[in-house]
Each structure stands twice: as structure tokens, then as C-alpha cells.
Amino acid sequence: MADFTPRDHPLQDRHIVLGVTGSISCYKAADLASKLRQAGAAVEVVMTPAAARFIAPLTFKSLTGRDVVVDMFEAAETEAHVEVARRADAMVIAPATADCLASLAHGLAGDMVALTALATAAPILVAPAMDSQMWEHPATQENVATLRDRGVEVVGPMIGRLASGRSGPGRLAEVPEILGALCQLLGQRTGDLRGRHIVVSAGPTYEPIDPVRFVGNRSTGKMGFAIAEAARDRGAFVTLVAGPVALETPWGVHRVDVQTVAEMLVALEQATADADAVIMSAAPADFRPVSPADHKIKKAPGQETLAIELTQNPDIIASLPGGGVRVGFAAETRNLADYARQKLPAKRLHFIVANDVSAPGSGFGTETNEVVIFHDDGRVEEFPLLSKYAVAHLILDRVLERLQPSA
Ligand code: CTP
């Protein structure tokens, strides 16, 4: 068994200061605080007096296990007002009102949230929430532009139903989006893949038989999506070329949707032109119908069988000229080592991640995977059953070892 330490969640042991300002969406900040704690972060909450009218500080104290600071004069007595700012690995302000954005843009320190934002050297993420007229007002837009110029990250606001009953931009981003944006922000500041472009393919392809039927396979894309997320968490710019799958795009990942092998090939040719690595976790269909029907194929009276002639699809990874570090997958049901070793030179791979898809916990659609990595220099590394996110990091660790120093 290979020597390795599974990676923690990117927020594990991070010190996150959560600033809460007065919007009706404050209640969602309680869920955010809880999810941050579940991810292993130490969470310290600072609130404005307006936020404390929407939601009790006690809620956050109970969720985070730490005192919540609302009154900055009380905090000033113990120097807590600057200590909180100093301890932060990142500050998230969610929800961030128009008033809060204005304070931040102009360097005001009139409440504990604005004061902490002014005093911290840590990266700041704001999740605005307000009525759409307030969001669209030139003053707010200018303030947001100023903050972006200064390196503040902004997630949302989302378009949808607002507390006023109207619809438009102004909804607080959902908790998974805020967490994704935070992981991306931390990765971009300190991740070992920052500045790199990693291309990942995921999912099956559907090769049309007629307008309603296709030749495909059981791939769900979970492994590829986990790799895309892990690469984002390590600061990479990620292009995810996805076949037809029912998965949410990880926040900050550039996704290109394709249906067929022909489309996947074109998308990957474009994406890998400047890539540092290509990780081919998709399960492209090996064959496609020779001549897909223009209209739905109908049963003829008395017809017992239907023959569909298939022709071989191109091997995508083998035909990609470059891509930097080249990683393939081998999903087998027998002779794993032999087949995986044969695919290494045939597809010009640096290493191949092989798994027995018939083993328990290792097949399509599972949350876990048990892999063996075969390297082009003959090394073989076996790993136990791990989450797909943990496997993703193992793969990226090995990509990192092989990357050329960046220019
Ligand atoms: N692959 C590819 N293009 C294809 C088929 C596969 O780029 N048309 C890639 C897969 O994404 C994977 C690797 O090649 O990274 C191995 O895929 P696999 O299906 O295991 O192997 P095949 O080459 O298709 O061979 P076989 O199906 O005979 O095992």
C-alpha cells in the first residue's frame, strides 16, 4: 500500500471570520456558520447592530462555540476588535448590505464588521444581499467595482425572488456557492496549483442512434467533478469538459458541456492548448452508430430485431497533441494491471489511474473509489478505498510532482 496522508477539507483548521450585516437573509448566515464548522473551520462571528435585530447573536454563539462580537466599544476594551482581524485566514461577509459595501469601499469603521474588514490583512469575500434597486444603484455598483479592484472577491447576488416580493438581482448566494467561492479564494492565495490551468474531462458521451435514443454508458461524472473541485481548491484555473451528467458545476470552475466524442475532442483540443495538465476521467463511448436516423426509428409490423451498425470513435487522449501532464483512467472489470499498463504508452500518459469497477464501493456513481496508479516509469501505487475527493487530491499531488516550473 502506498504511503500517503488523505487530504483534509480545504477549510479544515482555517480561521474564518464571518461578518453578518443587517438583511432579511441573515438567517442563511446561521446555516453558513454551521457548514463552516462542519468543514472543520474555526468560526468567529462579528455582527452589526442591525444584523442583531434580525437574528440573535446567541444563535451564532451556539453554532460556533465562540463569543460573538456586536458592540465594538465593548470589544475595544479587550483589544478584541483588532485581534479578531489578525487571527483571520479569510473574512466572509454574508449577507453584505449596500451600507456595508459602501463602508468597505470608503474605509469606514463604524461597526464591528466594517472595522474588522479594515483591520484585516486576510482575503475578503463578500456576498451581497439587498433589493435590486439598491444593488443596481450606481453608488453600489461603483463601490463593488472599487472593492473588486482592491482584490475583494464577490459572490452573487443571485437573481430571483426578493423579500420585497419583486424579482431581480439581490438574493444572497446559496451556502454551497459561498463555501465554493471561499475555497477558491483561499486556493488562489495559498494553493500549490495557483496560476496553473488544469483541464478535466468527466462523464459519459451520448452517441445518437436517432433524435431520442443514444449509445452511452453508466458514468456519472462524479470522479471528474471531484478532481475539478479539488484543483480549484488548490488555486488552479479549471476547465471541466463534461458529458451529459446531472451534477452541479463546482463554483469557479469553467464548464464546457458536450454530448458526443466528436464534441468532446473539439472542446478538449481547444482547452488543452495552454493547459498544464489534462486529466481524462471521462468515459467516452468507444463506438457510435454509423448513420444516426434523422427521425425516431419506428417498429415495423412483425419486426423482431434491430441491427445498428457501430463504428469506432477516435481515442481522444491519444489524439490530443499536448496538454502538459497527461493523466488517464482505466476502468476495468478484470486483468486491471495488464490493461492499465498497455494503455500508458498507447495514450502517451504520464500515469494512469486504474480501478476495478466491479469491486464494492468502486463502481460508477459511488462516492468512493479504490485505485491503483501505474506510472510511465514503472512505479505502481495502491491505495485503499477513499472518497472521490481524496482520490482527486492524490492524483493532483502526482500531477504537481510532474509539472514544469511555471514561467
Ligand atoms: N479514452 C479516450 N477516448 C476514447 C476512449 C477512452 O480518451 N474514445 C480515455 C478515457 O477517458 C480514459 C482512457 O482513455 O482516460 C482509458 O479509457 P478506457 O475506456 O478504459 O479504455 P479504452 O481505450 O476505451 O479501451 P477499452 O475500452 O478497450 O478498455
Model description:
With 407 residues, this protein is of the alpha/beta class. Helices cover 35% and strands 23% of the residues. The chain contains 15 helices and 21 strands. The chain has helices at 26-38, 49-54, 57-64, 72-77, 80-87, 98-105, 112-119, 132-136, 138-149, 175-190, 222-233, 261-271, 316-319, 336-346, 388-402; strands spanning 15-20, 42-47, 90-96, 124-128, 153-154, 158-161, 167-171, 197-202, 207-210, 213-215, 237-242, 254-257, 277-280, 287-289, 310-312, 325-332, 351-356, 368-369, 371-375, 380-382, 386-387. The strands form 6 sheets. An 8-stranded mixed beta sheet has the order 12-11-8-13-16-17-19-20, with helices on both faces. Helix 14 links the parallel strand 16 and strand 17. Helix 1 (26-38) crosses helix 10. The chain is globular, with a radius of gyration of 25 Å. The protein starts with 14 loop residues before the first strand and ends in a 5-residue tail after the last helix. The model has no long low-confidence stretch (mean pLDDT 93). It binds cytidine-5'-triphosphate. Cytidine-5'-triphosphate binds at residues 261, 280, 282, 284, 286, 313, 315-317, 328-331, 339, 343, 347. The site of cytidine-5'-triphosphate (CTP) has 16 residues, from helix 13, strand 16 and helix 14.
